[in-house]
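Researcher: Next sequence.
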Amino acid sequence: MAILLRDCGSSDPDHYSAALKDFGLSCLSIPILRVIPKPITPSLPDPLLYQALVITSANSIRHLPPNASLWLTHFNRFYTVGPSTSRSLLARHPSANVLCPPSSSGATLAEFIAKDTQHPSPRVLFICGEPHRPELAEILSANNIQVDKLIVYESEILDGVGDKIREACGNRQGVWLCIFSPAGARAVLSQLRSDINQFRIAVIGQTTAAVFDDIVPIVVATSPTPEGFKQAIQTALISPEGFEQAIETALI
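Model: Next structure:
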């Protein structure tokens, strides 16, 4: 059995459920986070101040204000993490010049940006939620790239999530918890830390994996897609050594 843990209103788990059901896993989606848009005051930043816009989650695009579609067209370059983020961006700005490294995390995206940047005094705008992990901004700053942040949403853990997960599992052993964001990972740890070792954990990428900090063995999707999740869990289920092999692959 696999339990997909996402924010309220997300339709993506349906695609992941379909992929996991392909090889016999029953799936259940449980909302774990409430995403709340944050007002942007006094106005959206001037795009002409920046060489690029950096986006690491689809929620950042979804929670921009309605008038942001025109604003987006004034950026020359966009750096993103994952196909879901890129799709959300292109839905609002179909002609966007999107650079999305394969299998990227916030940290690897920052390294990519540092190598790709040619401007003598680079400055980028990072749109994100609260809380968010610091690696991207830290790596960019260490490479003398100025990072301005625009917080467009915040995440809250829904009440009673831990009890809902335990109830859904019943007496089953080895249930997979599929986690799609660092905020989701923090929510799982806050709700299930005392019995986290009863579950198998699969996560969308390295940034989400870093939240667990070796607290529990995890596997990481081979790519931030339904097929990537499927491949990682399949590797862990194929043989007695599969789970360890999937973990080793995730750490490369």
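Model: Residues 242-252 have pLDDT under 50 and may be disordered. The CA atoms of residues 69 and 93 lie 6 Å apart.
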